[in-house]
Specification:
about 90 residues, 3 helices, globular
Length: about 90
Amino acid sequence: MSIAAWIVLGLIAGFIAGKVMDGRSDGLILNIALGVIGALVGGFIFSTSAAAPIIAFNPYGVLVAVIGAIIVLVLYHALFGRGLGRRV
């Protein structure tokens, strides 16, 4: 996939993961960054567990990216003390 496709996939994954985690966004730039990192993490986890890697922008790729972004968001919130589900 191209860099633009990874950014779009990261934006979508970060937005969806943010809504799933606590119902609000952490900001556009942070969502893109965490979403792209989450897409990479999700792709790595799924490809090492004998699942198909992300090779195209499709529903499977979005699902893998969202799962990875949720994992990254959990780690981000744990490291920076925001807590899960807490509204500030």
